[in-house]
Design brief:
152 residues, mainly alpha
């Protein structure tokens, strides 16, 4: 198994993905709720600074709770995860659109805001969502850097 590098730097915006273990059954609606509950708990505990520690705590807590709900033992998440530093304003918008499009592309819903576990409804001002995201005001210039760079 290849090891993905970890970047733990304060003051950065990250896009993070993880997957279930191969051959693990898909998450049920109540298990998706468990994931959101654990994200909210970890966000409160860590003030939502995005570090590997946050992912470790979230994956551990949600995996344990889901395994307990399934009356099974063992991991449900793949061991590693992928992170991507959002360097420019356009990166934030691109990744947000990608996240919201996933349930539509998987033919689970017709529109992103119809997926109950998504923040899409929050961003289009349709309905309250289960966990309200933090507000991010992106620079108007899509090429604007999201963090200080030494050549500026």
């Amino acid at each position: 198994m290849s090891r993905l590098r970890r970047i733990e730097v304060a003051g950065r915006y990250f896009f993070v993905t993880t997957n279930l273990l191969k051959h693990s059954p898909p998450l049920s609606p109540s298990e998706r709720d468990i994931c959101l509950d654990q994200i909210d708990r970890v966000r409160t505990k860590h003030k939502f600074a995005l570090f590997a520690k946050l992912m470790r705590d979230w994956k551990s807590a949600s995996g344990f709770a889901i395994a307990k709900a399934r009356s099974k033992r063992g991991a449900i998440w793949q061991e590693r995860y992928f992170d991507f530093i959002l360097r420019r304003a356009r990166d934030f918008g691109n990744k947000l659109e990608y996240i919201h499009a996933n349930p539509v592309e998987a033919t689970l819903v017709a529109r992103p805001e119809d997926w109950a576990w998504s923040s899409a409804a929050f961003y289009i001002k349709k309905d309250p969502v289960r966990i309200q995201p933090d507000v991010f005001t992106a620079p108007s210039d899509p090429n604007e850097s999201l963090w200080p760079v030494p050549w500026r």
